[in-house]
Amino acid sequence: MRILVSGGCKNGKSYYAQRLAKAQQTCSLYYIATMTSVDAEDDERIRRHKQERLGWGFTTIEQPTDIENILQKCKRDSSFLLDSLTALLANEMFLPDNSVNERAADKITLGLSQVLNSTRDIVLVSDYIFSDAEIYDPFTESYRRSLGDLVRMAGRVCDAVLEVAFTNIIVHKGSEAFSALYKKIR
User: Fold this and answer.
1) CA 174/CA 162 separation, integer angstroms
2) pLDDT tens, 28-77?
3) Does 2-185 carry CATH code 3.40.50.10070?
4) Does the pTM of the predicted model rise above 0.85?
């Protein structure tokens, strides 16, 4: 099953997504890590995520860009957890030379489509950053719009779309398909 898990920052969605990926496991279990650390807070988040999945059987693949390349590194009949679309977009959009790739979402859409069409069981994680009424600078607004495009594309393709909100799970799409898997993780 292809599942999109969205929600606010630091609300447990990655841990929940790990449980979903593990419940789908039929052979290998891959954690596709997209975050590149830029400060001590990122280092701590990466450390915490590694600690949380210790002993779960995940093989971690660091793939901060060019998401389609995981297809050459992994067995396709496996269970995948891609954490996260948010970080993947930041890596593809805001380049090391301080330039901005305005077409990053298009690039990710192509690569992610290849991944989604080549795998059966995958959980995608994305932050939900769309609900405030704040007015942002053009770069931030471009990023938010691009993430929205990616989330909508993933939502169309995924069998289930979930939102983690204050430890509550809201099923926006695929409740019938998702119910059997949900029983396994409760």
Assistant:
1) 9
2) 999 999 999 889 998 998 898 888 889 999 999 999 999 999 999 999 99
3) no
4) yes
Give yes or no for a contact between 32 and 83, defined as CB atoms under 8 angstroms apart.
Answer: yes
Q: Which residues of the chain have pLDDT under 70?
A: 133
Q: Which two tokens stand for residue 114?
A: 């290849």
